[in-house]
């Protein structure tokens, strides 16, 4: 399984407690299928690890921004 995200990309979390949050990709680990994102939680930048399956496709983020 590969993920179409790269370091520096914005990623939308689609499920779990961070659903709806957009974060900047800091690290992609294809071995563990995890992405490290920096997201804003309570006005603080926080690093979180998110499974690939909880992220929207990159074009979904572009579509949401157009709405």
Decide which structural class fits the backbone: mainly beta
Distance between the termini: 30 Å
Helix content: 10-25%
Shape: globular
Low-confidence stretches: none
CATH class: Mainly Beta
Number of helices: 1
Helices and strands in order, then pairings?
Layout: E1 10-12, E2 22-29, E3 34-41, E4 44-51, H1 58-66
Antiparallel strand pairs: 1-2, 2-3, 3-4
Structure at a glance:
By secondary structure, the chain is mainly β. The protein is 13% helix and 40% strand. It has a single domain, classed as SH3 type barrels, CATH 2.30.30.
Write up this protein.
- By secondary structure, the protein is mainly beta.
- It has a single domain, classed as SH3 type barrels (Roll).
- It is 13% helix and 40% strand.
- The chain is built from 1 helix and 4 strands, in the order E-E-E-E-H.
- The chain has one helix at residues 58-66; strands at residues 10-12, 22-29, 34-41, 44-51.
- The protein has a 4-stranded antiparallel β-sheet.
- A hairpin with a 2-residue loop joins strand 3 (34-41) and strand 4.
- The longest helix has 9 residues, at 58-66.
């Amino acid at each position: 399984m590969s993920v179409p995200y790269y370091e520096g990309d914005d990623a939308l979390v689609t499920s779990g407690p961070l659903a709806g949050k957009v974060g900047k990709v800091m690290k992609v680990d294809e071995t563990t299928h995890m992405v490290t994102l920096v997201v804003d939680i309570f006005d603080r930048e926080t690093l979180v690890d998110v499974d690939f399956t909880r992220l929207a496709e990159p074009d979904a983020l572009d579509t949401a921004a157009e709405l």
